[in-house]
Amino acid sequence: MLFGYLALKILYFLLRGATPSVNTLFKRLQIVTALVLALSHSSNDAQKAMGVIAMGMVATGYAAQFYVPWWSIALCACAIALGTAVGGWRLIKTLGTKFYKIRPVHAFGSQLTSAVVILGTGLLGGPVSSTHVISSAIVGAGAADRISKVRWNAVRDMGLAWLLTIPLSALLAVGVYQIVSRFV
């Protein structure tokens, strides 16, 4: 969120005195930032899934050492592509309208920020949630424009969902394990 805020403040400083036609430039530049963001997304999220598959293979004895087989790479790449194709537009619509009305400058700034953060953490070996990074960058860009512009109740709801997802998933997994273990 902080990087999205700073990116937009820097853009506004660099563009002071620009006419509204600068939005056309940002619409075109979004093609580049969208491609870089897609690269960063796939280099981060697919890798986590491949790691889980490889760990599962070692844990079950299917593999003697940790390695990522070619079919896992292909499967994860297809899953990311399919998920983006099926649910991507819904996610884009939600992020583009739920927090505030995004203009091309916001989209460019938040895409550039997200790509840099995701690629940077990937190069450092740290896994991050692409969705969390992108959503936070969008909120930061909107806050840089005007704090009151952001619909903070929508941000609160999203944050609450993020906080509850892991503990509730863990409880669900325990429950399913308890049920399945009685029949096995």
What does it look like?
The structure is a single chain. By secondary structure, the chain is mostly helical. The chain has 2 domains: 2-149, no CATH class; 151-184. 80% of the residues lie in helices and 0% in strands. The chain contains 6 helices and no strands. It has helices at 2-14, 22-59, 70-97, 104-123, 130-145, 152-183. Helix 1 (2-14) crosses helix 4 (104-123), helix 2 packs parallel to helix 4 and helix 4 packs across helix 5 (130-145). The mean pLDDT is 87.
β-sheet strand percentage: under 5%
SSE pattern, N- to C-terminal: HHHHHH
Low-confidence stretches: none
The span between the termini is 47 Å
The oligomeric state of the chains shown is: single chain
Q: Could you give a short account of the major beta sheet?
A: none
Count of distinct strands: 0
Helical residue percent?
A: over 70%
Could you say which structural class the secondary elements and strand pairing correspond to?
mainly alpha
Total domains: 2
Q: What are the key terms here?
A:
184 residues, mainly alpha, 2 domains, 6 helices
Write the layout of secondary structure elements.
Layout: H1 2-14, H2 22-59, H3 70-97, H4 104-123, H5 130-145, H6 152-183
Q: What's a concise summary of this model?
A:
The protein has 184 residues and is mainly α. The protein contains six helices and no strands. The chain has helices spanning 2-14, 22-59, 70-97, 104-123, 130-145, 152-183.
